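Two folds, back to back.
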Amino acid sequence: MTSTHSSVILFQGDSITDGGRSRNDDPNHFLGHGYAYLIASRLSVDLAARQPLFYNRGISGDRASDLYARWNEDTFSLKPDLISILIGVNDAWRSMNGEASGFTDRLGRAYRHLLEETREVIPNTGLVLMEPFILQTGATIENWDRWQERIGEYQHLVRELAHEFDAVFVPLQQQFNDALQQAEAAYWLWDGVHPTAAGHELIARQWLDVVQNSPLKIQ
């Protein structure tokens, strides 16, 4: 049987997306161990006859401006049919730490630039924008009010960008808030930012529920 990929799906973002992925073509490691791997695993089985192709190009530590800087090499060159983006927590984290690179908040500008270029260069590619999220534990306990304010601004921005660029918006903060009824914050986000295995599974389930019930359904 000839291998024919019906769809090319790209996951982009920071360490949450990176998930410890390898930087080679080893299919046992190149998707990492996070939500991108879980989503690809499920859809690769469900759609085996059509053999969708999944890429993970998340890089730990990235801000929106870092993502934009590598968009040509790590996005356009792959010619994806669908791009899923999760970014924002490092933009907030650096400003919380008072680092010089965090004084100018460029998330909105950089995010808009990469979406504008995407619509220009690959206009028919589907866009999925994932909501950044936090919980009150670990790194976010100190300055929690400021964390909530900054991430809240980013969440509003991403929702607005999704509407403006006709993208599918994947809400995640409420899912994590609701999960606190079952277990404490660190069970889901071990340091208030990075997911545990349970946190990644929660993200994957929400992504699949939203995207696979949208016009961008992978099939």
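---
second:
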Amino acid sequence: MAGAHKVEMKLEVLVIPVSDVDRAAQFYEGLGWRKDADFRAEGRRLLQFTPPGSPGSIIFGTRASPAAPGSAQFNHLVVEDVEAARAELVARGIKVSEVFHDVAGGYNPFDPAARASGPDPQRRSYLSFVSFKDPDGNVWLLQEVTSRLPGRIEAEATSFADASDLAAAMKRAETAHGEHEKRLGHRDEDWPSWYAAYMAAEQHGAAPPA
């Protein structure tokens, strides 16, 4: 199959099992998620919500899933700053955990006994979390990701979810470029090219420009 065209298969929807559709709708609206659809027909109801900046959505509704309500566990929501994201949820009245990381310094956000308080001490990407539940007990994880692992992004594609995502990437590039200019010992006249190379490399998980 070498060289064969790959059919795109985009993960766009997760089905969340809930017991009370009205209660779930109120909760996810309270999170600040966009309500895309609310279909009602023949005694059934189906809703779709999308988290801010996300290309994927969730759906739930009457008889929308054979799974038991509350059985959706540890779906990940990626954020640039886990502490800021937690603060926003708290301001919205959502009950959330403290920020935590794996006590052994690795990746194990699922076992409460393996959690240590606070973000990863080195603030490494992928290793700082917050958890919260919807009214049925479906568990969500906020995961802080500031740079991607190699292979996470298609080599030919560089994209940002929204303006705030792009702005955050530019701020990180600005900080890194400041260190670059210190090493140079003078102003980098071609800073736009350096910014572009840095931001693309960060997304692709590649080495940043020297």
